[in-house]
Design brief:
Elements lengths: L2 H18 L6 E5 L6 E3 L4 E5 L7 H13 L8 H11 L3 H19 L1
Parallel strand pairs: 1-3
Antiparallel strand pairs: 2-3
Helix pairs in contact: 1-2, 2-3, 2-4
Amino acid sequence: MTAIDHKDRFKQRVRHWADKLDVKIVWLGVRPMRNKWASCSTAGHLNFSDELPALKPELWDYVIVHELLHFSVPNHGKLWKSLMRSHLGEYEANEGELKRIAGNKALQRTR
């Protein structure tokens, strides 16, 4: 499967979750992002790191749901955590794996 195929599958997954969570996406981008996996704006814009499509789909879901929930819950408080758990179950393992991957990338950039 090519990088373009992965990117297309990733975008399809974002749209799947947006429909499931009843979130209207105005703009969806997958682009280089140096310091984070994703970002969103209250205007309905979503940006995801172009490195995400190469990762396993469970990690996609973590980042996608994380960002989409911010359209209704702007912080990482109890409500946000409860919603993450209701949609993804025990999501913390994926969160930890992404942090490890990000830490390894940071180390590589400093060498």
